[in-house]
Amino acid sequence: MKQFIRITAALLAALLCVGSLCACSRAEKDATVRLPLAEEPHTLDPQIATSDSERCVVANCFEGLMKATADGEIVPAAAEKVSVSSDGLNYLFTLKRDARWHINTNHEDLLGKNYETALDLNVISTDFAFGLQHALDPATKAPDARKLYMIKNAEAVNQGKKSMKELGVKALDRYRLQITLEYPSASFLQALTEPIAMPGNHAFFEATRGRYGLNASCMLCNGPFYLSRWYPEDSIVLRRNPDNWHFSAKVYQVNMPFAVEEDTLTKNLINGLYCSAFVQPGQVEELESRGVKVETVQNGLLALFFNCGDELTKQSSLRFALVKATNFSAFGFETQIKGLVPPSCMVGARSFVEVSPGIGRLAYDEKKAISFFKKAGGDKGLSLSVLCPEEYENGVRAVIQNWQKVFGISFAVQVEALPAEELQERFEKGEYQCVVTSVQTGRQTPLDFLEDFQKKDYCRYAPKKMNELLDAVRRAGSEKQLVEAVTQAQAFLIQNAVVCPLQYTASYRAVAEKTQGIYFSHSGQTVMLPEMEMLK
Hints:
The protein is α+β, with helices and mostly antiparallel strands.
């Protein structure tokens, strides 16, 4: 038997300190709060949930084996303790024995009059095994299945090449779950905090007959809240889960309206009707002047992107020529950022930007730029279109003036300054040659960011080498190896003149004046509500 090294749950107590600055006597008992969602969820099946709104609801309605604290530490949640073998391949999770699924009258139509006794409501090891099996079942088509590929045979199972029986997940008894990995992974415990790894009751799933996660009667929750009501095109209602004794939520009900207009957001944050919401930069000054706290979340990247699927800009020689003749100071940014991955992406409990060595842009060199330009046929005359947001038009024009100064009048460049929505649409569809724009992420890790970048195919660039570099990130067995692999992957994109990073961009998360104990994922997208209180 392999020797196991124990990971204790001591850090779990740290979460209990969140929001303790004010005395409990000042808090409103059993409050109802309102938290607007950017859009209506399509599904609340955890293994399929991908939008920010879906992930936010799932995070508060389910409890996984592990969870992230407000400080970004990964600690046991439904697991009481975790042991890992000395080779880093075998994980043994011992579950808490008091966890239960919450059943209520919503489920009577689905399960019958005896709904309260129709299922085994203890949260047990087979529930977590089923959640992982559901995630990797090819029929589920889970968008985030790749996050679990470090589990033994997971990729082959997900691709239909091996049977589910060969997956490295085994319920040893009711309260012990063993997971065997394909390779040691620094990302594994973090992956277990994600919706993709949440548990599911197999018997309940089968009873929904394909409607799992589509309405309140087809949701069975084990988290701090449960889904009480779902009003299509209007709102979702969560209520405190009386069957989750690990954390008894301090508010009774959370109303989540969909797609609230900007003016309504501002008004309801000021009057305290909404506890928190993402807001636009133009709202920040007014909100702060009225006592609303606004947190800046650096979860985006502004960059110069090239379309490698376009007949002209797919030429690396032209991209090198343009980048080496780009005077980036024209944009007016004081400092050069460290790479592509924004500060919101974490390695363990630290921002990747803090631990990354950083990557410089390709150096300005007019002589080499002219050489590359001639190689691309520029001396015969070339025409290029550059898209940009309206606020960066002057900077882009200054860059283009320098290009034409270096390359001569045979190089014709057209600038299109577009409204944000039109620019984003053309960028995502690949209807551009060169564009200055920003991408934002609601994801938590550098790997998530880079995988999304490739999956969305912003630059129409997917050489075999890039796939190998991403695979090296997935297979990193330590945080040090992870940082090195991510650094190499983003360096590959920068050094091949596919993306030129300009500046990290921010989102703004507002928190109403009398709200305390609320915390967020580092991207700011997922709001954690169990410790939230409303002051009187």
